[in-house]
Amino acid sequence: MNILFLCTGNSCRSLISEAVFNHLAPAGWKATSAGSQPTGRLNARAVQLLAQKGIPTQGYHSKSWLDLPATPDVVVTVCASAAGETCPAYLGPVLRTHWGVDDPSHVQGTEEEITAAFEQAYAILRARIESFLALPLDELAQDHARFKAALDDIGRLLPA
């Protein structure tokens, strides 16, 4: 099953999500990330954070949702519309859910405050992905209504 983590710039939160998901996912489940308006580069702090966590990012790059290698089965938007961001709407016939997370790359402050924002975004996304992967995936893959409800619950009930 192909999972797409989608955000506007595809440089930070969607990258973290893609890398964490692929690091933890069972065989046959693959994530990619993309943006509706990709920046064309990965956020250096996000790449550094993933390296510190032992999660590889080799081969990942900022890309448009128009350049996907496969049609996704599930699209997870990770932009934080509550923070005033415009969250892209993927228009393909797929299961969609929203897991808004504030963009740590927009945080201004001390080095410690910026680092803490990246750690918080990572912790939220990892907890949500772990919850996703703890679901009865084979069973839910056959029942899109239940699968969507479970994914929506993850985004709504786990802290943001």
UniProtKB/TrEMBL annotation:
Molecular function via GO: arsenate reductase (thioredoxin) activity
Pfam families: LMWPc
UniProt keyword annotation of Flavoprotein present: no
Signal peptide: none
UniProt EC number: 1.20.4.4
CDD domains: LMWP_ArsC
Keywords: Arsenical resistance, Oxidoreductase
Database matches in SUPFAM superfamilies: Phosphotyrosine protein phosphatases I
Domain called Phosphotyrosine protein phosphatase I: residue spans: 1-135
PANTHER family: ARSENATE REDUCTASE
Protein name in the entry: Arsenate reductase ArsC
Source organism per UniProt: Massilia consociata
